[in-house]
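Example 9 (inverse folding). The structure is encoded as follows.
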């Protein structure tokens, strides 16, 4: 992989694609700044290497045209606070005005462009849109592992127009994911939660023979339980995947009890054994016996991959399973890789980032890479 470590960026304008697709509350406040903090080393490296301008670009959310609530303007101020530098925010990401503002900025400036997805060309991998992005800079740096599984203009097409390299974060992501993909030490334990099994199925299948145990919780466990004829009440599941979920391997470890409620806002939970879930129950967390079993398995592991919370952790009543897994992993001697947007929020809530082995900025990208699926954003960096 071509790294920024091998090039001379002195006096050059560098376009850095990052992943600032952050979770925000209803008032626009950042719920987790992990993805912002993760790219700081690359920005500092480029500054110290004498880059003329550092042009940072990202998407945020899934806007329908230009939506003020999904502007990156507030993130510019936050990034500036972390770097202790003024960030020049531009209210567009292409065009002659944007180019002139970049060129007229002082040497060493850090510039944040407006949300790339305000333009349809970004997600369509449009060459004309990517050419206009490339026209702003001399060098392209991809430091956005979280979107490397997508064919976006700022990730793929732009590499046709600029010399392209991997940032320090992207290199770190690949280095650590390779450890659990190819060079892991057994026992290997995978932990999967979250709402959907569809995104995790390829990885579950790929590692079904490699992993010693695959622990399931969250909505995806509901789908597997339902596929096996179990009662899940009115809990979340994916009906279109029941047949496929029913054929998973024997090393899948399911919860044996659950915390259930009547709504997501319940202030108390009931413990229900598997097979005793009522028609009106909502399964919202794994139960205490399941948690103890999962912890025992984690304690014996040498390598752990975790993606997705095990319950509705947004309500503290149903966060016991997820918090228990975090505590067990923080005390484990195993090498761990953790990823996924909701997982990052759970780590933020418990202040446990520094207690994990490696925390990936990617969710879907992490699953795709480990599953050997196509990673368009990495293809041109490996040539």
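The amino acid assigned to each position is listed next.
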């Amino acid at each position: 992989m071509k790294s920024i470590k091998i090039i001379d960026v002195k006096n050059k304008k560098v376009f850095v694609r990052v992943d600032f697709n952050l979770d925000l509350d209803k008032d626009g406040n950042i719920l987790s700044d992990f993805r912002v903090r993760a790219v700081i080393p690359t920005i500092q490296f480029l500054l110290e290497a004498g880059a003329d301008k550092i042009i940072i670009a990202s998407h945020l959310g899934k806007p329908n045209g230009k939506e003020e609530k999904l502007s990156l303007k507030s993130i510019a101020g936050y990034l500036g606070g972390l770097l202790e530098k003024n960030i020049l925010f531009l209210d567009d990401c292409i065009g002659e005005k944007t180019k002139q503002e970049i060129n007229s900025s002082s040497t060493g400036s850090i510039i944040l462009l407006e949300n790339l997805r305000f333009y349809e060309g970004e997600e369509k991998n449009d060459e004309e849109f990517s050419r206009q992005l490339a026209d702003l800079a001399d060098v392209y740096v991809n430091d956005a592992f979280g979107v490397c599984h997508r064919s976006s203009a700022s990730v793929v097409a732009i590499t046709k127009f600029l010399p392209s390299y991997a940032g320090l974060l992207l290199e770190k992501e690949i280095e650590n994911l390779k450890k659990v993909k190819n060079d892991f030490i057994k026992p290997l334990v995978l932990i999967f939660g979250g709402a959907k099994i569809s995104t995790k199925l390829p990885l579950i299948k790929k590692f079904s023979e490699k992993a010693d145990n695959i622990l399931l919780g969250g909505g995806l466990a509901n789908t597997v339980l339902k596929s096996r004829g179990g009662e899940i009440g009115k809990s979340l599941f994916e009906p279109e995947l029941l047949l496929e979920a029913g054929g998973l391997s024997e090393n899948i470890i399911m919860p044996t009890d659950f915390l259930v409620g009547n709504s997501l806002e319940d202030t108390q939970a009931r413990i229900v054994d598997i097979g005793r879930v009522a028609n009106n129950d909502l399964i919202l967390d794994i139960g205490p016996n399941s948690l103890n079993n999962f912890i025992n398995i984690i304690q014996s592991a040498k390598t752990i991959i975790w993606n997705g919370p095990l319950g509705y952790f947004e309500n503290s009543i149903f966060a016991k399973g997820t918090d228990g897994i975090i505590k067990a992993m923080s005390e484990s001697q195993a090498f761990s890789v953790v990823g996924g947007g909701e997982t990052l929020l759970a780590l933020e809530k418990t202040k446990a980032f520094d207690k994990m082995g490696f925390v990936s900025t990617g969710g879907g990208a992490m699953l795709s890479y480990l599953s050997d699926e196509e990673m368009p954003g990495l293809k041109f960096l490996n040539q």
